[in-house]
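SAMPLE LOG
Freezer: B-3
Tube label: C17
Construct: single chain, 70 aa
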Amino acid sequence: PYHKNVVNLLEQDVPVLIYAGDKDFICNWLGNEAWSNALPWSGHEEFEAAKTYGFHLEDGTKAGEVKNFD
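STRUCTURE (predicted):
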């Protein structure tokens, strides 16, 4: 399963982007949120506790939600 590769990348401090469109019914954002919050890596607790916030385009249009952890 590819989620194990994501854990390896995170542990090596490689930036990872997990993306889902709001019209994607097969790999929807709820599923991505659930598995990304459950990943067993050293930053798990901090990432799970992080809040989502709006992602806005340069013109101020809201384009989605983001959750970030450094």
